[in-house]
Amino acid sequence: MAQKRIDPYTALIIQPEVNVVDDREGIQLNLERVKNMIHFGVGYHWEVPVKLVVLPEYFLQGVGTPGKGESKIEDQLKKAVTIPGPEIDQLGEIAKEYGLYICGGGVVESVPEFPDRWFNTNFIVGPSGDVVLKYHKWHINASLGLGTSPHDIFDEYCEHFGGGIKDLFPVIDTEIGKLGTMTCHDGCTPEVSRALGYNGAEVICHPGAIQEFEGVSEPWDFWRFTRRTRAHDNMCYVLGANWGSVNYDFYPKAFCPGHSFAIDYTGMMLREAPYPNEQVLAVTVDIEALRQYRTKTNHNCWIDVRTEGFREMYTNPIYPPNRFPSGKPPKALVEKITICKEVFDDLYERGQFTPPAGMGPKDVSEQLQKRIDYAQQTGRLKKS
Q1: Which is an annotated GO molecular function term of this record (predicted)?
Q2: Which of 46, 71, 285, 329 could pair with 75 in a Cys bridge, judged by C-beta atoms 3.0 to 4.6 Å apart?
């Protein structure tokens, strides 16, 4: 059956000021701000109608990182929401009003199947006002994120939600193209975007809370060059939303300094907001041009994939699964960081990594433990 033509449309990438809140009651301030920014963007770009909106990670609740402002699991659970729920329903009303798909991410979500923890969750609401996709962040940085990855409880998670690639990395086929989503650290390595590409994604909505420490600005534009690669490899749009500025006692205002962007299916940067401030970025998405581009054989990043030679890379675990089963969620970041000692041991013992001069394979994990001990003794890292 011939596909129906999809006319070019406008996508909005929202770069808001975010407040790190203490409880669920504080969420509304953040929510009102992004709602008004959506209203502005839809009205301003009326000539090529807006059909898609992308919001950043933790846009509802914010999050704390190591140091005096570190969030422990009980801190985040105080502000956890359900999806769907009253907060997401408010965005659903806007989606229904204008005929939009709205993607947001990093939502601190309470899931009834696992009541002792929270998930870092992306959602997409559709023009019906309903949640049409939900994704739980896979690559959660051990040193920064206390949300539960499906990998942390992999066997149990698969029993409840399914363990196939389409269950873990869902893509929906819509009247504006095939939409998928990944969150922040998911974009640092190829696997999640590759899974979305495998499932047919044409637009990857990419909420992030990308910190300057991780390289957002020149000369270390890590945020951009990795995501340009994700778009190029999968021949899809990547729409990345970051915070514009933040209000939190333990963060600089430009902790996550903007640089939200739109990247096309060739890896080309189309638009960017290269500053730490609020902005609504608009870009034209042309799905028909993408689909035409994918018909070419020359430099097609999918038709030349030869998988057989790479299987050994994924046969054995690296960061081990099932380490935080039901009843044993991580209470503080140190519990996840400590597991990295095992990962270091594995990488060095098999010769993939070579230790620095004067160090043996086991010395690296011992060094990490010494660093953890010092950080805890001096108040830089909270204890469990």
Answers
A1: hydrolase activity, acting on carbon-nitrogen (but not peptide) bonds, in linear amides
A2: 71
